[in-house]
Amino acid sequence: MTETKERPAPSVRLLHIQEAAAEVGLTPRSVRYYEELGLLKPAARSEGDYRLYDATDVERLRFIKGLRDDAGFSLAEIAKLLEDEAAREREHVAFHATSDPAERQRILRDRLARYEHQAHMLRAKVARLQTMVDETEGRRARTAARLEALPSELAAPSTESALPAPNQETAR
What is the per-residue pLDDT across 55-103, written as a single tens digit (0 to 9) for each? Predict the structure, then answer.
């Protein structure tokens, strides 16, 4: 039987770290590292103290991997995004637990600030990526221009290009 800190429902399928990592395309070491950083917390532990992961954990791993690999976020940026999400979940519960208009207003203002911060982070990432695209397009344009200039250079050889090709025999 499995011992857990918070017992999941009996029908929940729990995966060992190797299974969860393989399902997402990560290594078990990466999953352990994410846990060390606080990005992930296993759903349960077995009697032998092995980490066990549920579907929510696997989805979180996919989200982390996507942010890291596809969007190029650092683990620190990912941690901030995940913390913002956890805070929104806590605030959602707090909002519905109170009928005090001032408290509800404070919660919604905090949520707005988190969304604004997140949007700022995303816009900064887009700007960095756009700069990279612009630089790459500039290098491509310079290379294309050099390529177009080659036929005209071949038509009027310079003194440097008058040297014999390596496979040609020189006249004696």
Answer: 999 999 999 999 999 888 999 999 998 998 889 889 999 999 999 999 9
pTM of full prediction above 0.85:
no
Cβ(42)–Cβ(56) below 8 Å: no
Q: What tens digit of pLDDT does each residue of 115-137 get? A: 998 899 889 989 998 999 999 99
How far is residue 139 CA from its own chain's centroid?
26
For the stretch 125-142, what's the b/e string if a residue is b when 16 or more beta carbons lie within 10 angstroms of its beta carbon? beeeeeeeeeeeeeeeee
CATH number for 10-70 (one of 1.10.1660.10, 3.90.1570.10, 1.10.1740.10, 3.40.50.720): it is: 1.10.1660.10
